[in-house]
């Protein structure tokens, strides 16, 4: 087990290296001069000399491989450079915003599970019945609704009309409800469908028939025999979703003025704040790899076949 | 019949309502099994043997439906009792062993969990006690190191061991009737013989009735007291195994027996033609298109089971004069 985890953590090195090269290339391919953008912020056209001075100061006149080498040399020491705009260290900026994103991601996930789990299971159990149609319609609805529209509607009803929840910003639990629901609803739609398909497949298996033939209570047949098997495909996908959520849900964070990393990254892209974009991509790659590692480990606990096969090769 | 039947299936019909039409998988099947006896249910693949087994336990899922019939066990009709009572009958009074032990065991639960839950879902005993009894059961089925086995998962066992576990699971609550649906088809011949011998031994020990579903006539001859031959969802011949094998009355039974390879006989005689589609069953005898003895009467209505000897019945219009 530990050998497996170590091996997976070592994968991080080539992944991060590749991601940093690609991001670096893409940033420099994109049009727009950061120096010009920084100087423009006052609304006054900067002089050529001023732009040149700033470019030299930021090191933008060096050849690309020198720029990349300089960045990489620092990144190895976990120094992701300083933001062109604020001058603060990029790592510090990302980590100060990450708790907000993590909080929102966890809340959205919790909401998703609360909605998708019962919807998926009931939908499969009462296949082609009213409950199934309702849940499938809900899933279709949820999957096709754009997040920004749902977010605005929720704000309109719950914050503006009813006034029961705050419109935006980060604060207590009440601030979390609307953005979490907006994010979680679309996800729940996808997972309810996956779970339904998984359950339907499992319910047709021989071992479910055997479990019923043994005279087990139906809640055991579903809860113990069917659900554990049906969860496997959903868990695989969960890694991807978690990664996306932790990357910051840009639209939702923007609508609700949620101070997370997603909004921060988008602002950086508009400002051509190279160190921040680079640092963000680097950080996200690490998050993706780590979350997927966690998912794979949880898979091991759900499916003994994987655990024991790994154990034999040890 | 001299002994009292413990399981009595009367006129059982199970249909599947598909978009192509109604598939009459079981179409008016009737048979009985006495305590301590074994009935062999034989027939080609797709003749409705397994659906019969599932129907007896009411395990048919949509689009299938049990349309009519009675299944009497212990004085109650299993097709009529409420689900709660049915759950108590399943596993405790009547148990099922399926064909493929790999798909019959849940891949993500240990053998111990699957065995113990069978016991403690029917009896008010502690988890530890259930596990102790599960170990005992595995031991009685001749499985080595049962304590260790309890902690293993199905994929870590061989086919023969898995089927022994399935048999142990089925017999955990000493049921009165065991329905074994081709319990040895997926196993190799030596393991098959061992499992069948163990079934026989446990039957004598527990005095239970067995319905052995198979297409292996050798197994029928070795294991069963009575045999029921199924064709296109109905029983076409029923009787003591020696009687049916020595004097097969129905042309299908005769053809089936001729198709068994024997030493000293060079050529095999397969049953010519294809089994009928269960989708559009004819009103007349379903075997008519393949029957070598068919006559004018066979194009009339479907023949009923008729007594033709002591405990021996067959459903055919032209049993005589060539029967016996």
Keywords:
heterodimer, A: 314 residues, mainly alpha, 0% strand, B: 324 residues, alpha/beta, Rossmann fold, 2 domains, eight-stranded mixed beta sheet, four-stranded antiparallel beta sheet, 12 strands, 25% strand
Write the layout of secondary structure elements.
The complex is a heterodimer of chains A (314) and B (324).
Chain A: H1 2-29, H2 34-40, H3 48-58, H4 64-76, H5 90-125, H6 130-144, H7 147-161, H8 173-203, H9 206-213, H10 218-246, H11 250-255, H12 261-270, H13 274-302, H14 304-312
Chain B: E1 5-18, E2 21-34, E3 38-42, H1 49-56, E4 64-73, E5 76-77, H2 83-89, E6 94-97, H3 101-104, H4 111-120, H5 127-140, H6 146-149, H7 159-171, E7 177-181, H8 189-206, E8 209-214, H9 217-223, E9 226-231, E10 234-240, H10 241-246, H11 251-258, E11 306-309, E12 312-314
What does this structure look like?
The complex is a heterodimer of chains A (314) and B (324). With 314 residues, chain A is mainly alpha-helical. Chain A has two domains: 19-90, no CATH class; 98-312, Orthogonal Bundle (MetI-like fold). Chain A has helices at 2-29, 34-40, 48-58, 64-76, 90-125, 130-144, 147-161, 173-203, 206-213, 218-246, 250-255, 261-270, 274-302, 304-312. Chain A is globular, with a radius of gyration of 24 Å. Chain A starts with a helix and ends with a helix. Chain B is of the alpha/beta class. Chain B has two domains: 5-93 and 176-280, P-loop containing nucleotide triphosphate hydrolases (Rossmann fold); 106-174. In chain B, the strands form two sheets. Chain B has an eight-stranded mixed β-sheet with strand order 6-7-8-3-9-10-12-11, sandwiched between helices. Chain B has a four-stranded antiparallel β-sheet with strand order 2-1-4-5. The longest helix of chain B has 18 residues, at 189-206.
């Amino acid at each position: 087990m530990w050998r497996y985890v170590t091996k997976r953590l070592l994968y991080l090195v080539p992944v991060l290296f590749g991601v940093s090269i690609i991001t670096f290339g893409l940033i420099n391919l994109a049009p727009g001069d950061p120096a010009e953008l920084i100087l423009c912020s006052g609304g006054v056209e900067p002089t050529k000399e001023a732009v040149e001075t700033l470019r030299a100061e930021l090191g933008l006149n060096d050849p690309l491989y020198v720029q990349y080498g300089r960045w990489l040399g620092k990144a190895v020491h976990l120094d992701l450079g300083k933001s062109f705009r604020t001058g603060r260290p990029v790592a510090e900026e990302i980590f100060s915003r990450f708790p907000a994103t993590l909080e929102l991601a966890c809340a959205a996930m919790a909401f998703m599970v609360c909605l998708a789990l019962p919807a998926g299971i009931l939908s499969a159990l009462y296949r082609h019945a009213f409950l199934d149609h309702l849940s499938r319609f809900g899933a279709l609805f949820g999957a096709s609704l754009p997040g920004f529209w749902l977010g605005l509607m929720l704000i309109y009803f719950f914050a503006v009309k009813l006034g029961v929840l705050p419109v935006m910003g980060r604060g207590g639990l009440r601030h979390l409800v609307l953005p979490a629901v907006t994010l979680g609803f679309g996800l729940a739609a996808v997972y309810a469908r996956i779970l339904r398909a998984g359950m339907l497949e499992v319910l047709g298996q021989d071992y479910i028939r055997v479990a019923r033939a043994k005279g087990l209570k139906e809640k055991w047949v579903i809860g113990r025999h069917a659900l554990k098997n049906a969860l496997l495909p959903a868990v695989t996908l969960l890694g991807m979703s978690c990664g996306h959520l932790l990357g910051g849900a840009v639209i939702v964070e923007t609508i609700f003025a949620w101070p997370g990393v997603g909004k921060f990254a988008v602002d950086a892209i508009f400002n051509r704040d190279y160190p921040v974009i680079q640092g963000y991509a680097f950080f996200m790659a690490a998050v993706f790899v780590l979350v997927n590692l966690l998912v794979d480990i949880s898979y091991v606990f759900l499916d003994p076949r994987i655990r024991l096969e790994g154990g034999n090769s040890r | 019949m001299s002994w009292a039947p413990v399981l009595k299936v009367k006129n059982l019909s199970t249909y599947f309502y598909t978009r192509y039409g109604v598939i009459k998988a079981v179409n008016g099947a009737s048979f009985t099994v006495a305590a301590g006896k074994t009935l062999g249910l034989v027939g080609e693949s797709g003749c409705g043997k397994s659906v019969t087994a599932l129907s007896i336990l009411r395990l048919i899922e949509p689009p299938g439906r049990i349309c009519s019939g009675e299944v009497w066990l212990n004085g109650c009709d299993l097709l009529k009792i409420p689900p709660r009572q049915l759950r108590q009958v399943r596993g405790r009074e009547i148990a099922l062993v399926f064909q493929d032990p790999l798909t019959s065991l849940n891949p993500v639960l240990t053998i111990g969990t699957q065995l113990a839950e069978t016991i403690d879902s029917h009896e008010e005993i502690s988890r530890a006690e259930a596990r102790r009894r599960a170990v005992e059961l595995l031991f009685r089925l001749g499985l080595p190191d049962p304590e260790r086995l309890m902690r293993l998962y199905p994929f870590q066992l061989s086919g023969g061991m898995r089927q022994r576990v399935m048999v142990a699971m089925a017999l955990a609550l000493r049921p009165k009737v065991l329905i074994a649906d081709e319990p040895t088809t997926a196993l190799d011949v030596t393991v098959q013989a061992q499992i069948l011998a163990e079934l026989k031994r446990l039957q004598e020990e527990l005095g239970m009735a067995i319905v052995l579903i198979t297409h292996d006539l050798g197994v029928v001859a070795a294991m069963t007291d009575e045999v029921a031959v199924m064709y296109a969802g109905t029983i076409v011949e029923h009787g003591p195994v020696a009687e049916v094998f020595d004097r097969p009355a129905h042309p299908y039974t005769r053809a089936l027996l001729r198709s068994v390879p024997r030493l000293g006989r060079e050529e095999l005689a397969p049953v010519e033609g294809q089994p009928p589609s269960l989708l559009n069953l004819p009103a007349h005898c379903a075997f008519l298109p393949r029957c070598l003895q068919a006559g004018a009467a066979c194009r009339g209505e479907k023949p009923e089971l008729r007594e033709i000897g002591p405990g021996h019945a067959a459903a055919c219009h032209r049993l005589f004069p060539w029967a016996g």
